[in-house]
Amino acid sequence: AYFDISDPRYLDGIFPVAGDHTNSAYDIVFVHGLRGEAFRTWTSRGKVFWPVQWVGKDFPSARIITVGFGADLLLWGGGFARSLQEQGELLRYKLALAQVGSGGRKVVFVTHSMGGLLVKQILGFDGSDSVVGHRFLPSVKGVAFLATPHLGSWLASVPAAVRSLAKTSRVVEDLSSSSPYLTVLNQQMRDAYSNCAFECLSIAEGMRTQLRHSSIKLSLTIVPPEASDPGFGVFFIEPSVDHINIPKPDTRGHPVYKALEPFIRKCLTEEQPKGLLDLTDLLDVEG
């Protein structure tokens, strides 16, 4: 096991997989999405759990935490009994108890899919007309969004009668592409980005995801690029990945990790003016 389950600071679903809260200079927190899991989501097809095996080695001064929670689409599969807001508030409490960002530690979040929406909640945004930033916000130096549905997903566009029959979890109801809640949530994050010293990286899936259930086969874009682009920070589409594999880079040379590693490094180790971070910096491209 990577972590000490006897430490009372770490409640259910909070796994410190590298470093500790006393000696680490930074916190890097991984948050999965729907149908994800604290370890499986971030494990490549080659069985590499890269938050430890790559990020842990590239950032030896960091404490690395991976977050886990029930995240099935259907209630009978262990899905969300809570709304997106409620789940975000619970994770905020757990991360505060784990002392994320305390003692002057800088924080970077790496998120997949709906996990990015939860991080917005963790940072104190709630989709309402007025919001007070949570104490995490001053410590946060970067948020990476991998195929996050900033502006909604097709999942919530399935007819209501079908969703009722399937007993979809409450969080699916929050993901409508016409949701005013998601629009305000994204605007609050955009305003904070404009006013605070943190950076954002968003990567969209460029391949359709192949889904199979019994004899049914579907080829779908789970989160289209237009929903993955929050309208601020660095954004690009990675054509070699689908929704499931975007958090599972096979090698350090994979485009997703080649963008993430310098993004994390710049966020944690450089004091730089806003707007200096751009795509050519991350991908080490000339011109």
User: How many E-type strands?
Assistant: 9
How do the strands of the widest beta sheet line up side by side? Answer: 1-3-2-4-5-6-9
**How much strand content do the residues show?**
15-25%
Q: What can be said about the biggest beta sheet?
A: 7 strands, mixed
DSSP summary: helix tally: 9
In N-to-C order, the SSE pattern is EEHEHEHEHHHEEEHEHH
Instruction: Work out the radius of gyration.
Output: 18 Å
Mean pLDDT: 81
Shape: globular
Structural class: alpha/beta
- Helix-residue proportion: 25-40%
Distance between the termini: 45 Å
Contiguous low-pLDDT stretches (5 residues minimum) are 73-80, 156-169
SSE arrangement:
Layout: E1 14-18, E2 26-31, H1 50-58, E3 62-67, H2 84-97, E4 106-112, H3 115-122, E5 140-146, H4 160-166, H5 170-173, H6 180-195, E6 199-205, E7 209-213, E8 216-220, H7 225-228, E9 234-238, H8 255-269, H9 279-283
Parallel strand pairs: 2-3, 2-4, 4-5, 5-6, 6-9
Antiparallel strand pairs: 1-3, 7-8
